[in-house]
Design a protein that fits this description.
Elements lengths: L1 H64 L8 H24 L6 H12 L10 H29 L9 H9 L9
Helix pairs in contact: 1-2, 1-4, 2-3, 3-4
């Protein structure tokens, strides 16, 4: 009988602890859901940026390798490239607000290699055109690589997490003996 009376005195503590644990649990779940949603939205922005960068690379490579014959004139080509660079910059600004700080120099390089001296494309040799198109491709790949590196640093890949079964299996393995020579 004394035990029941003693439990009644502490019932409010059990209720308070239960309430606190539920509150903490919901806070953890909310924070994780928010982080996952932010990661997903940022990944979508990265994917859109990569798509535009690839399009920019494709257009510039085709232009340089064809000697400028893929577009009506140099102004048309420049306008197409600069519109894609502008779109890319907007995605980079969105990503910066989300903590994925992609450096502008990579986009500058792509813009420079795609448009610098593009009005003289017909006057240079085919090997110089090929070199210039390769520079455009390298600049695009550097931007893509940098974007993924920064994204992975901010949001590490989820696939590297250990499952509960793997953890238990590791615990059940016998310890490794040190070998002495």
């Amino acid at each position: 009988m004394e035990d029941v009376a003693a439990m009644k005195d502490y019932a409010w503590i059990i209720s308070l602890c239960s309430f606190l644990l539920v509150f903490i649990g919901w806070k953890v779940v909310y924070r994780n859901a928010k982080r996952m949603a932010t990661r997903s939205e940022s990944k979508t922005a990265i994917d859109s940026l990569i798509k535009i960068v690839n399009e920019t690379s494709d257009v510039s490579i085709a232009y340089w390798l064809s000697g400028g014959k893929t577009h009506q004139n140099v102004q048309h080509y420049t306008m197409v490239i600069m519109s894609k660079i502008g779109q890319s910059y907007e995605f980079i600004k969105v990503l910066k607000r989300r903590g994925v700080d992609i450096e502008d120099i990579y986009l500058e390089d792509l813009s420079n290699y795609a448009t610098l001296n593009c009005e003289n494309v017909g006057a240079i040799s085919m090997s110089e055109q090929a070199i210039h198109s390769q520079l455009c491709l390298n600049a695009a790949m550097n931007l893509i690589t940098h974007a993924f590196e920064i994204f992975d640093a901010k949001y590490p890949p989820l696939g590297e997490a250990q499952t509960l079964e793997q953890f238990v299996a590791e615990l059940n393995e016998p310890p490794q003996r040190l070998q002495t020579h």
